[in-house]
């Protein structure tokens, strides 16, 4: 019998397909695998949170709460985990404390056993309310430390060094963490750094330690192995068809590597191979999401641009839809510069989306000629304390219409649940629906109208719409466009759509006297 078997958490049905196929895997394609997954012997399965809540309501026409109920029903033996973005929950902004409390309470009731809670800036202040809510629910609170590097290279330097990570672990354990996760969302953790980091963390805490790595740079499998040598308790893996690339290491070769050792997890390899075959049969319909413009399975440049797996697949998808995929390399280079200007935030949601969107603007319109609303809020302090000082010139540009935020950012937010309940009372009074609306007032309301028969489900949401078209589409010849410089006459407007706020800059293209009538 192994003396210290490693525990394996499976991420196939959350981070696996989020990283590789923009979270598009439908429930009907997961259900046939769940009984066998439950019999494998996983420590836990991550099946919810991250982008799954948004994508199911926005693109798939599926109720995320019903998804969770299905997972719980078909996985009775395996603890279910979710990724929770601290005060941002499963959204892209900070929500009021009453929304945090209601969401965590309902998630625990419906089926979540382990809450992996993180903050994009590793700011404990942004985790206080979510941590309290999880502890109140009497579920497992796992607090994640987002792993990052100051510049390209190895662990160390002026910000992200050993002292930084040990300090975060100590802070999180003091907040009641039942376990700690090293969250290497960008695939930046080098193998020997993983060994050293786990070794030192085990000296300052007695709670279980879990490692979550993405394969993006090609180092994750080696880093997982070195972490196990140093005594890590739990590691995240995927089934082979949705492993590697920008997702997690594959579970199958890890089992073979550990067979007969003191860390052998003792999982059922034959069943895992059968599950891989089953998954292979459903993935061809998602071919358009799995395709990338690169031939290489790894992207060693991630050690420079530090883009996590989920962000990478979504960035490719967005650029392809905008017919701008040819500018991907420019955007990747600009992300590194933009991140430095922003004070080196870890590139994880929502900081990854914020940094990526601003980098795209910088490439298309010129550096900081168009600053996004979230970046302005971040510079003002609405997201918490940055790891390092923000570039002074950027502060001057971004703060023209902002007041600095002092204290805990969420303290300035008014309660939201009563307003959400009132807003959809004509459609539903179910707490699940109220939370969907509270999280996503625009796309959530559209989904609720579809769910309750107020609107027909559009064809693109229906099952089968993910399958590649058999009709060859001939693209029209591209017309070169020239982006004009932003004039000093550009004006900023507040636009409200379905309860969501957008800041839009409008630049007149000709004097009024020349306008057509």
Structure explained in plain terms:
The model is unreliable at 468-484, 492-503 and 508-517 (pLDDT under 50). The protein has helices at 12-21, 27-40, 52-60, 64-74, 97-110, 128-137, 162-174, 191-204, 220-230, 251-258, 269-282, 287-290, 302-305, 309-321, 328-341, 351-365, 373-380, 392-398, 417-423, 431-439, 443-451, and strands at 7-10, 44-49, 80-84, 114-117, 140-146, 179-184, 209-213, 234-237, 491-497, 500-506. With 517 residues, it is an alpha/beta fold. It is globular. It folds into two domains: 7-290, Alpha-Beta Barrel (TIM Barrel), CATH 3.20.20.70; 302-411, Orthogonal Bundle (Cyclin A, domain 1). 42% of the residues lie in helices and 11% in strands. The termini are far apart. The relative contact order is 0.12. The strands form two sheets. Strands 1-2-3-4-5-6-7-8 form an eight-stranded parallel β-barrel, surrounded by six helices. Helix 7 links the parallel strand 5 and strand 6.
List keywords for this structure.
alpha/beta, TIM Barrel, about 40% helix, 2 domains, single chain, about 525 residues, Cyclin A, domain 1, eight-stranded parallel barrel
Query: How many angstroms does the end-to-end distance come to?
Result: 84 Å
CATH architecture of the largest domain: Alpha-Beta Barrel
The CATH homologous superfamily of the largest domain corresponds to: Aldolase class I
Strand order of the largest sheet: 1-2-3-4-5-6-7-8
Mean pLDDT, to the nearest integer, reads: 88
- Give helix % range: 40-55%
Count of separate DSSP helical elements? 21
> What is the class of the largest domain in the CATH system?
Alpha Beta
Shape: globular
Main beta-sheet strand count, sense and barrel state: 8 strands, parallel, barrel
Question: What's the count of strands?
Answer: 10
User: Nearest-angstrom radius of gyration?
Assistant: 23 Å
Computed structural class: alpha/beta
CATH topology of the largest domain: TIM Barrel
Low-pLDDT residue spans = 468-484, 492-503, 508-517
How many domains make up the 3D coordinates?
A: 2
| Percent strand | 5-15%
């Amino acid at each position: 019998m192994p003396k210290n078997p490693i525990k394996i958490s499976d991420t196939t049905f959350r981070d696996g397909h989020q990283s590789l196929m923009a979270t598009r895997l439908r429930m009907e394609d997961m259900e046939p695998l769940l009984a066998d997954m439950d019999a494998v012997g996983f420590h836990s399965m991550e099946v919810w949170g991250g982008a799954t809540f948004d994508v199911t309501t926005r693109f798939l026409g599926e109720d995320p709460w019903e998804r969770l109920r299905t997972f719980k029903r078909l996985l009775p033996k395996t603890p279910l985990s979710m990724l929770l973005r601290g005060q941002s929950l499963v959204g892209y902004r900070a929500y009021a404390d009453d929304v945090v409390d209601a969401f965590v309470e309902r998630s625990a009731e419906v089926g979540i056993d382990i809450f992996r809670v993180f903050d994009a800036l590793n700011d404990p202040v942004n985790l206080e309310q979510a941590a309290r809510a999880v502890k109140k629910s009497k579920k497992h609170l796992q607090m994640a430390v987002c792993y990052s590097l100051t510049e390209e290279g190895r662990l160390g330097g002026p910000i992200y060094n050993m002292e930084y990570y040990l300090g975060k672990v100590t802070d999180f354990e003091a907040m009641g963490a039942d376990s700690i996760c090293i969250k290497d969302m960008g695939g930046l953790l080098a193998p020997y750094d993983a060994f050293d980091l786990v070794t030192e963390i085990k000296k300052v805490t007695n709670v279980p330690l879990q490692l979550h790595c993405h394969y993006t740079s090609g180092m994750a499998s080696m880093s997982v192995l070195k972490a196990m040598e140093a005594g890590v308790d739990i590691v995240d893996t995927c089934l082979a068809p949705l492993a590697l690339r920008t997702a997690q290491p594959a579970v199958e070769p890890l089992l073979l590597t550990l067979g007969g050792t003191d860390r052998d997890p003792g999982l059922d390899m034959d069943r895992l191979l059968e599950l891989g075959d089953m998954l292979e049969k459903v993935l061809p319909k998602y071919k358009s999401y799995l395709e990338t413009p690169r031939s290489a399975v790894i992207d060693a440049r991630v050690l420079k641009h530090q883009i996590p797996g989920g962000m990478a697949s979504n960035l490719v998808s967005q650029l392809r839809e905008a017919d701008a995929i040819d500018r991907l390399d420019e955007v990747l280079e600009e992300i590194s510069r933009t991140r430095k200007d922003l004070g080196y935030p870890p590139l994880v949601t929502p900081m990854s989306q914020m940094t990526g969107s601003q980098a795209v603007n910088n490439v298309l319109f010129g550096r900081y000629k168009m600053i996004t609303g979230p970046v302005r809020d971040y510079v003002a302090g609405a997201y918490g304390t940055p790891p390092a000082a923000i570039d002074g010139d950027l502060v001057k540009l971004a703060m023209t219409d902002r007041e600095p935020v002092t204290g805990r950012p969420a303290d300035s937010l008014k309660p939201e649940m009563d307003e959400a309940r009132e807003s959809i009372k004509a459609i539903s009074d179910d707490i699940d629906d109220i939370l969907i609306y509270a999280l996503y007032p625009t796309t959530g309301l559209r989904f609720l109208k579809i769910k309750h028969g107020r609107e027909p489900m559009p064809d693109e949401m229906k099952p089968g719409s993910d399958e590649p078209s058999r009709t060859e589409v001939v693209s029209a010849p591209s017309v070169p466009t020239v982006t004009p410089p932003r004039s000093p006459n550009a004006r900023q407007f507040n636009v409200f759509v379905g309860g969501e706020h957008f800041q839009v800059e409008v630049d007149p293209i000709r004097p009024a006297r020349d306008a057509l009538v």
